[in-house]
Design goal:
Structural class: alpha+beta
Strand order of the largest sheet: 4-3-2-1-5
Number of helices: 4
Oligomer: single chain
Order of helices and strands: HEEEEHHEH
Distance between the termini: 51 Å
């Protein structure tokens, strides 16, 4: 049972890491809204790296953001946090894979493997938190501009990349939690068995001592 939970947590973390990584390549972080707009023949959409425009025929043109220093501070922070989340997810995947019971690499002891898997679960959770913060921050800025009546620029709606990223972040956190719970349960089980064996040995020693005294 514990091994099944461990594998499930690893697969959820791996899927969450892949979904989180795919959000950076997704162009649809925000899409221009057609609400209250007379011209609907073209749409604008952006991600953290570029801005694109698409007309009614499906032809689109994209322009990379020319300068990093000229961008808003929250976009720069979102870039950094997303990259950190992907790097942490890669390390967590490697550590969890090495710590699984079903994997055998070298002469690594079970106790060491459990600690490695536990560390992988913790890093999975950190990666999920590092991803969910920029996604929510980006969505917050979109909604604030959308509902601000004095904002004169183009208003946008939430794009599909944000929903994919939220799903990936949730999988990272849940997968890491399952790994941590599984490793903790294994540690408690081993400790309980060891204590029981010791108590049995002590009882046997006392009984054997009493019998030897009676015999003498």
């Amino acid at each position: 049972m514990a091994a099944a939970i461990e594998i499930t947590g690893f697969l959820m973390g791996l899927a969450g890491w892949m979904l989180t990584g795919s959000t950076l390549a997704n162009n649809y972080w925000k899409i221009s809204t057609v609400y209250g707009s007379v011209i609907t023949s073209s749409r604008l959409y952006e991600n953290l790296w570029k801005s694109c425009a698409q007309d009614s025929t499906g032809v689109f043109n994209c322009r990379m953001f020319e300068t990093m220093l000229g961008l808003s501070s929250y976009i720069q922070a979102c870039r950094a946090l997303m990259i950190i989340a992907i790097i942490l997810g890669a390390f967590a995947t490697l550590m969890a894979l090495l710590g699984l019971k079903c994997t055998s690499i070298g002469s690594m002891e079970e106790k060491v493997k459990g600690k490695v898997a536990l560390s992988g679960g913790i890093v999975f959770i950190l990666a999920g938190l590092c991803a969910i913060v920029p996604l929510s921050w980006y969505a917050y800025n979109i909604t604030m501009e959308f509902y601000n009546p004095t904002y004169g620029g183009t208003k946008y709606e939430l794009g599909s990349a944000l929903y994919i990223g939220w799903a990936g972040s949730a999988l990272l956190i849940l997968g890491g939690a399952l790994l941590c719970c599984s490793c903790k349960r294994n540690a408690e089980t081993r400790s309980y068995k060891y204590s029981s064996a010791q108590s049995g040995q002590r009882i046997y020693t006392k009984t054997e001592s009493a019998q030897s005294k009676a015999y003498v």
